Amino acid sequence: MKGQDQNMLLTLHRNIQFIYELVLARMELEVFDVKYQIENSLRSFQISSGLNVERFTKRCAYFKEVDGTLSDYHFIQQFNQTRSVNQYLTHWFYPYKGKFHPQMIRALCNIIGLKEGDFLFDPFVGSGTAALEAQLLGINFIGIDISPLCILQSKVKARSIDVLDEIVKLRHEIRPIGRNIKNNSQSQLLFKGITYEDIENRNVSNFYQLAEMIAYSDSRRRHKDFSKSFYSNVDKMIASVKDYRDMVNKLNINLGDAKLLLEDTRQLSLSDNSVDGIITSPPYSIALNYVKNDAHALEAMGNDLETIQDEFIGVRGHGFKRFELYNNDMEQCFKHIYRVLKPGKCCVVVIGNVTYQNEQVKTSEWAKESCKKAGFDLVKEIDKIIFGLYNVIQEEFIQIYRK
Ligand SMILES: C[S@@+](CC[C@H](N)C(=O)[O-])C[C@H]1O[C@@H](n2cnc3c(N)ncnc32)[C@H](O)[C@@H]1O
After folding, report:
1. Are 376 and 389 in contact (CB under 8 A)?
2. Which of 165, 213, 253, 360 is spaced 20 to 30 Å from 393 by Cα?
């Protein structure tokens, strides 16, 4: 159809509500070289030319359908064991604070021109949202985080699909015998006499270790019964991984590989000019304490909080000194981020301004200067609404840079 006149109607997903989403939706159309006119409702677009319907419906993030042909993303969202529209497939595993919106990551992958087989890098991978979204588009992924809990979550979300049958086989052989919460003793799951740490396949043991951490979080934060929570989480997690496999078969998706590494981004070991794109949200300055938030799970995984605290950006130091340390740490990171990206390619930084002692700290402005110093050109900045963290962050920005 490309090159010919077209008269088609393209409709946004019903969950699109914000101006930044409309901006990104239009950027998606521009990347696919589509000529359009936006309808008065702002929910549909009249296409006049340029639309490759098959390719577009396979990859787009913000559009539900083209003249009755439903997009892959519409189907992907249906494979959901939760009540939250964006926590489909394995995205919901572990209640991590400050996750990316997955649909936004899918759109950004398109906008920065990533193709099947390319490498996307997230130097602050957190709960692994970008890992899963890259994988779904057939894009290979490298994610780094300093938190062992984040690396565990990301691996389980992206890799459990490869070992689903083994996970299911073990389901009836496990017996959580509880955890001594007072002294945070090591893992207490038993599989017919062996601990899950003895399981040969790390992807299988990771799955059960994360299920244990979710139950542990439920019991510590929400005072739920550990065993009940463990079993119900395992079943829901298995159902989600089955959903993932069914979805891949239904849509015939060639998943990308996901590599997750426990590393400090200040001393990034990736080679120069090695990745095709970067999408990341750095630690929210000092607004979120990732060690304190997940202290129970980090300790349960055998970490000494005081030792690891020293390596988490934004958590180091006291009072306003923390901002100085944050800025220095992030400057080192931006240098490495620039170094590993291939020339001409894009890096997206999602960053919020924080409020500290009633003062607003313009982290986003500072990030622009720091990225410029590292060598990046700012191509576009979009402001974005933020939910759930109003007391510490009110504004967030999507900054798109090019090397
Ligand atoms: C805003 S969160 C990322 C959230 C992620 N976008 C998601 O969707 O879940 C920032 C992450 O930076 C990580 N981090 C903090 N210091 C780090 C360091 N020195 N090296 C690598 N990662 C670090 C934290 O553990 C946290 O997971």
Report:
1. no
2. 213
Q: How much of the chain is helix, strand and coil, in % rounded to 5?
A: 40, 25, 35
pLDDT in tens, 241-253: 999 999 999 999 9
Residue type, 310: D
Strand order in the sheet with 189-191: 174-176, 189-191, 194-195
- Per-residue confidence (pLDDT) for residue 197, from 0 to 100: 66
Distance 282 CA to ligand 1 centre (A): 6
Residue identified by tokens 């995205």 is 91
Sheet strands side by side (includes 44-49): 35-38, 44-49, 5-12, 63-66, 69-70
- The response to whether residue 285 sits with its C-beta less than 6 Å from ligand 1 reads no
- Please tell me if the CB atom of residue 226 comes closer than 6 angstroms to any atom of ligand 1: no
b or e along 208-224 (b: 16 or more beta carbons within 10 Å of the residue's beta carbon)? Answer: bbbbbbbbbbbbbeeeb
- Is the minimum distance from the CB of 264 to ligand 1 under 6 angstroms? yes
pLDDT of residue 1: 45
Ligand 1 lined by 98 (C-beta under 6 Å): yes
Closest of 129, 150, 153 to residue 141, by C-alpha: 129
| Straight-line distance from the first to the last Cα atom of the chain, in angstroms, rounded to the nearest whole number | 33
Angle at which helices 148-159 and 129-136 cross, to 10°:
20
Question: Residue 176's pLDDT band (boundaries 50, 70, 90)?
Answer: low
DSSP code per residue over 292-329: HHTHHHHHHTT--HHHHHTTSTTTSSSTTHHHHHHHHH
Distance 259 CA to ligand 1 centre (A): 16
Interatomic CA distance for residues 275 and 215, integer angstroms: 36
